[in-house]
Amino acid sequence: MPLIPDSSFLNYIQILDDDEIDRIYRGAVQVLKKTGFRIQHPMILERLQKHGAKVDFTHEVFYPTDTMIQKLEDCVRRSAPSPKRTSLLRRRNIPGNVITYNGTIYYDWTEGKQRAATLVDVENMLKTCHMLKEVSEFGPTLTAQDVPPIIEPIVSFALGIRITDRPVLRVELVLPEQLPYLEELDTITQGVQVRYNYDGCAINNFTVDSRAMGCLVATWQRNGLANWEVYSCPVAGATAPVTLAGSVVVGVAETLGAWFAGWALNEEVTLTAMPCAGVMDMKTGRVLFSCPEAVMINVGIFQVFDRVLGMQAGMLADYTDAKVPGIQAMHDKMFNSLVYAWLTGQLNFQRGTLEAGKVFSPTQMIIDCDLNDELKHLSKGMVVNDETMALELLESMGPIKGKSFLDEDHTMTNFRKSMWYSSLMDRTNWDNEKTEREKELIILRKAEARWRAALMSYQQPDIPKEKILAAEDVVRRARQNLLPA
Length: 485
Hints:
The chain is an alpha/beta fold. The chain has two domains: 1-381 and 422-485, Trimethylamine methyltransferase-like (TIM Barrel, Alpha-Beta Barrel); 386-418, no CATH class. 47% of the residues lie in helices and 11% in strands. The protein has 17 helices and 16 strands. It has helices at residues 18-35, 42-50, 66-79, 119-131, 152-163, 179-190, 210-223, 244-265, 292-309, 327-344, 362-379, 386-389, 391-397, 409-418, 433-437, 439-456, 465-482; strands spanning 37-39, 54-56, 61-63, 97-99, 105-108, 113-116, 135-138, 198-203, 207-208, 227-232, 235-236, 270-273, 278-280, 287-288, 353-354, 359-360. The longest helix is centred in the middle third of the chain and has 22 residues, at 244-265. It is globular. The model has no long low-confidence stretch (mean pLDDT 93).
């Protein structure tokens, strides 16, 4: 299998050589052809059968041919963007803190409790994000468990439109019936007609389930399909071999198999991926997502697809195994962000999540914003010009002048834009034993106080009444049409 050229100019460190990448990819194709892939939608299976696949309709499994795999590969290569490949640290405009998620559990640091998220929590987090200057874009951060699931994303989205005058980030399409209502709400917040012609889903055990297929087909039938993204979730030792290479084979094979669902609807579709590997901890029975092995599996999947097909998968860096805000969460998040940057060339940011994305914590969100700012400062690289080199100043100082740069105007002019200053971390000198032991606790207290102050200071912005009424009408119709009588 020929690889994408210019490997010497990759913007990441390779963990697999070209022979290993080729061997893994060929192995994944072999596994996919022999085991098949399950797609729980008869129409999709019928379309794949017309392309030459052998289909077992009883078990909802298809077996792709070599010709189909070749066509799928061509589709991926054709639609993949051509990233700039360079060994130089990229200097780019890094976005601000984007806060949105669909966690089902809310963690209250003050009480030290986890509980099911409610619509009040969704409202409070929207108000908090609206008031935080660190947050540039946001949407609902939680899935309210006290709202019927079929209308929950619609209700939460409309709530955001009432709370903020900024565009509200879209929520995840969970059920096909929600599609027209979410499009309406997105049209209201964006101010222009919005049509969803893209979809995505998580896959495991070589299966795309009926719910995900329902969303995909509904999107295609309504607006066509432009992009189909899949998230392979191999768990080493459980749903995949415990060895890293074996889990990478599973991730590659599952991704190829799931791509066929979108390709069957549109042979010109853009196919993307975001692996989310885990590792079964044999001591505790818990699945871990931010350990070195899980990261290496995700990176392996990324590098195989990049080198073979030219498709650069996205990375989920905000999965931490920590259950509460604090040093473990900070370690996991910074570890993930930096390692993925080194090994995939992507800088990924954090969004306040805990426990593999199941939990959202506003306290952790504030800490994450600080970590993100540090990463953004690092990603700027180094500016080299007359002002930053300061040659004339250096020449005026010398070893015998007895001067300090602290006395120079150049230092006062440049120190704020040259250095990063944490809003939370302790950088003071040693104080005393008791105080130093409390420093980590002080960080958490600062973060907790900051988000609560933002919530308490919320003031309703001047949102056009017709915009709020339009969103409320969408919710009213959704309740009427989607909830049982």
